[in-house]
UniProtKB/TrEMBL annotation:
It comes from the Bacteria. Residues 21-267 form the MmgE/PrpD N-terminal domain. Residues 290-477 form the MmgE/PrpD C-terminal domain. Belongs to the PrpD family. This is MmgE/PrpD family protein.
Length: 508
């Protein structure tokens, strides 16, 4: 039975005991030895495959290469055997926090892995790189990785259900630091006190502004969750040495809620599993069929369909205007409501175009397809007819779609909207979509074969056939993997692939 943790700010003289603190409640979830349900195990396997797929597709991109080089420039710390780095040989190891950093950037770079949206945003698959890196370094087996990831997904998703960060312009990785710390605590079978201290530091060091996702979006967008995972590992290390962290981190009068979120009078009700209750939150998350911001997924599917059914809509000469009636979040974050002129700039960065639903809808409508590289190329973005159509597309907030976006009923929760296309002759085309085709309630819900197909599609250009099969075999046997096999749970690039990637030099 789910319980509710009521969260508010406490004055220092109230002396809130740790037993009443959210960080303590999250640590309690981490130490609960409840078994992981079979369907949760299956989904964890799916998401490990998904992470490796999108990491493979990004191996030669500059931000990923820079992070990888940073990791490889750090020797393995003496407390274990180190962790693997995506793309590198099995023997090439780095210290776990740096491996988590490199692998986290690879996973996040293309904005192409799993998502959960509620009061805030999240990509809970970002928990996998730090958990797996620590497991490899310390000799964790597959069953331990499963338990750890069930905890990490549960903690992050429960926080996202209740606490809005973006409303106060705080980046969503502030929910990731605590979840990764909790997951690592489960992995290492740490006590509640140690995990509590690690969660406190992980939160304290991973709160930052949302400017990383505003205006001209930089390559830090991919690095932010990797940084949170790295900080979580360092927080666990420090807590294991008996060191303490700011407390109460959420509830203190100078804490996160009082000064970074809703203020001294704010309250939140965080749903958490009761003691002995299965950790099933991962099943409420969903992956991406397309490499784009999650709130664009359904719109891509609708645009592809419309472009196929009505080829005349692809020509800007035939279109007077296109209005996407959608949720508050979609309108203000990736739509025209953001006020970001970069969202209409054909020379904008890939990261910016990924957060421009007018651009995405225009390209998907014209191409009746979406590709993780080709759809973002400068040549594609600068095409004259695309720019003309793109600049006729705006978004508008619709109260009903906002309500459905925030609905707690999974059967009506929606991330799409209604499109109104006014043609040059005055006629109007209208259509709508609630969820992406790949969503659990969509037209083609993602299942194991879809995750495997996505992996093969993205991995084939950079991995040898035998390497693809080796990884898939290991991933799909995750619960039974030995510690030695967990240390091989990575992807090794074809000879010469990494040599083609940029090799930027830095301080290390």
């Amino acid at each position: 039975m789910t319980i509710t943790h009521h969260l508010r700010v406490h004055r220092s003289e109230e002396n809130l005991a740790r037993e009443g603190q959210l960080a303590w409640a999250l640590a309690r979830i981490a130490v609960d030895p409840v078994a992981v349900d079979d369907d949760v195990v299956d989904m964890i396997i799916n998401r490990i495959i998904d992470n490796a797929a999108v990491a493979a597709a990004s191996l030669t991109r500059r931000p990923v290469s820079a992070a990888r080089q940073q990791a490889l420039d750090h020797a393995v710390s003496i407390g274990g055997v180190g962790a693997t780095v995506f793309g590198c040989t099995l023997e090439r190891r780095s210290s776990p926090e740096w491996a988590a950093w490199a692998n986290g950037v690879a996973v996040r770079e293309l904005d192409y892995h799993d998502t959960f949206l509620a009061a805030d945003y999240s990509h809970p698959g970002d928990n996998i790189p730090p958990v797996l890196a620590v497991a490899q370094h310390t000799g964790g087996d597959g069953a331990a990785v499963v338990r750890a990831l069930a905890t990490a997904y549960e903690v992050q998703i429960d926080l996202v259900r209740a606490i809005s960060l973006h409303k106060h312009k705080i980046d969503h990785v502030a929910h990731l630091g605590p979840s990764a710390a909790a997951g690592i605590g489960t992995l290492l079978d740490l006590d509640q006190e140690t995990i509590y201290q690690a969660i406190g530091q992980a939160l304290h060091t991973t709160t930052a502004t949302r400017q990383s996702r505003k205006g001209e979006i930089s390559t830090w967008k991919a690095h932010a969750p990797a940084f949170a995972g790295k900080m979580a590992i360092e927080a666990v290390d420090r807590a294991m040495r008996g060191e303490t962290s700011p407390s109460p981190i959420y509830e203190g009068e100078d804490g996160v809620i009082a000064w970074m979120l809703g203020g001294p009078d704010a309250t939140y009700d965080v749903p958490l599993p009761a003691e002995g209750e299965s950790k099933r939150a991962i099943l409420d998350s969903y992956t991406k069929e397309h490499s784009a911001e999650y709130q664009a997924q359904a719109w891509i599917d609708l645009a592809r369909r419309l472009g196929t059914e009505r080829p005349d809509l692809r020509d800007p000469e035939n279109v007077a205007s296109i209005v996407l009636h959608t949720s508050h979040h979609t309108h203000y974050v990736i739509g025209s409501g953001s006020g970001d002129p970069q969202k209409y700039d054909p020379t904008a960065s890939r990261e910016t175009l990924d957060h421009s639903i007018p651009y995405i809808f225009a390209v998907a409508l014209q191409d009746a397809a979406w590709h993780h590289v080709d759809s973002y190329s400068p040549e594609r973005a600068g095409r004259e007819d695309t720019v003309a159509l793109w600049h006729k597309i705006t978004t508008a907030e619709d109260a009903e779609w906002t309500r459905r976006y925030h609905s707690e009923d999974p059967n009506e929760k929606a991330f799409g909207g209604r499109v109104v296309i006014t043609l040059a002759d005055g006629s109007v085309v209208e259509d709508e979509i609630a969820v992406a085709d790949a969503h659990p309630l969509g037209a083609r819900p993602f299942a194991r074969e879809d995750y495997v197909r996505k992996f093969r599609l993205l991995a084939e250009p950079v991995l040898l056939p035998d390497e693809i099969e080796r990884f898939l075999d290991l991933a799909q046997r995750l619960p039974e993997l030995t510690a030695d096999e967990v240390q091989q749970l990575t992807i090794v690039a074809k000879p010469g692939v990494l040599a083609l990637a940029p090799a930027p030099k830095g301080l290390f």
